[in-house]
Amino acid sequence: MSLHIRTRLAAADERVTTIKIPPYEIRTKVFFMIYNMSTDNIEAKGFEFYEVLMEQYYPWFAQYMVMQRVCIDPNFHDICLMFLHKVNSPVLDMEIRKATYANCKILLRSDIIKSCSGERTLLKNIGSWFGKSAIQWNQDPSTYVDGLIPLIVKAYQKGLMLAVVQFISKILEPCQPIISVGTMEILSLLAEIYTKPDLQLSLEYNIEVLFRDFGVDAKHTKTNYLLKDVKHEVA
């Protein structure tokens, strides 16, 4: 599985600055290092990384890790977080976060996310990574509520709720079962969507699962009526 070509092109267009790409020999070493990384050699790989890659190439490495590894292989997430912990570079962490946010935005804007299950899977994968990495960096994923609420509203308008609910479920997974104020705001909005008469059955099921994981009932959750006058496409 990989990003659709149109999504890749969008990713390239999204970049404000040109990413410096390391020489072929260095790229080959990096690919080999990451491909052969395991829990048994994670410390050695951390030291090797510093020897192989200069800081000017960190944006390139971050894009590679997020687009080629994190999005595609959820089983790689934990070992990637261990690796970043061993490298212990605030600069690299920042670049990884930037690449994560950028690729989330790109996938969510994809014009084929509604019809392509592969792209939705990539979105779920990066949502899972988003949540796990936020926890590692001592952040509650639900603190991004200011960005997630408009995202849900826009997805509701465009008929993309199934993809977005799955994405948000993965982001909030590490928070379960504790419900913070931010999480409650998100759940309240989803509860409002849950009450809509034209709700798709698969979407209804996904919302119910998310609420159940937090130990609450979507039917009895107070809503904020943010969607009262919002027109939408049926998902």
Kindly describe this structure.
It comes from Aegilops tauschii subsp. strangulata (Goatgrass). GO terms for molecular function: molecular adaptor activity. InterPro entries: CNOT1_CAF1_bind, Not1. Residues 19-231 form the CCR4-NOT transcription complex subunit 1 CAF1-binding domain. It holds the Pfam family CNOT1_CAF1_bind. It contains 11 helices and no strands. By secondary structure, it is an all-alpha fold. It folds into 2 domains: 1-117, Serine Threonine Protein Phosphatase 5, Tetratricopeptide repeat, CATH 1.25.40.180; 140-235, Serine Threonine Protein Phosphatase 5, Tetratricopeptide repeat. Helix 4 (58-70) crosses helix 6, helix 8 runs antiparallel to helix 9 (161-172) and helix 8 (145-158) runs parallel beside helix 10 (181-194). The longest helix is centred in the middle third of the chain and has 20 residues, at 90-109. Mean pLDDT is 85; it is low at 1-6.
Mass-distribution shape: elongated
Report the count of strand segments: 0
- From the coordinates shown, what is the CATH architecture of the largest domain? Alpha Horseshoe
The secondary-structure element order is: HHHHHHHHHHH
Number of helical stretches of at least 4 residues? 11
What is the element layout, followed by pairings?
Blueprint: H1 5-14, H2 24-35, H3 42-52, H4 58-70, H5 77-87, H6 90-109, H7 117-136, H8 145-158, H9 161-172, H10 181-194, H11 201-213
